[in-house]
Please model this.
Amino acid sequence: MNLVKSLALVFALMAASISFSFAQAPNSTQQSDSVITATVKVKGITCSSDLKTIATNVEKLKGVKSCKPGKTGPTSTFEIRYTSSLVSEKEIYAAIEETGGCKNPADRPYKVKK
Model:
């Protein structure tokens, strides 16, 4: 009878440790960061070189996955995918507006349309 109780105790402890390890697994995977896709409208773009320069500057930011420019026009759009815990919209907007113009790199002609 002691042997049966011992085996039952061992089995119960094993079952408890297995369920405990499964209970811990979701916590380690729940800490994933959310990736956001935002469409940003920008005024002041006059040529395709402007689009490429802005996209390159935005992609340099830590947390930006991609920056795909649209067509050149009075208001151009960029589709930006980024990790919200690593970079903010405000930082992305600043990178766009701080990009120098292609005709005069000292100018800051680009404005985010909010």
User: Anything to note?
Assistant: The helical segments are 2-29, 48-59, 89-97. Confidence is low (pLDDT under 50) at residues 19-31. The first strand starts at residue 35 and ends at 43. The beta strands are 35-43, 64-69, 75-83, 111-113.
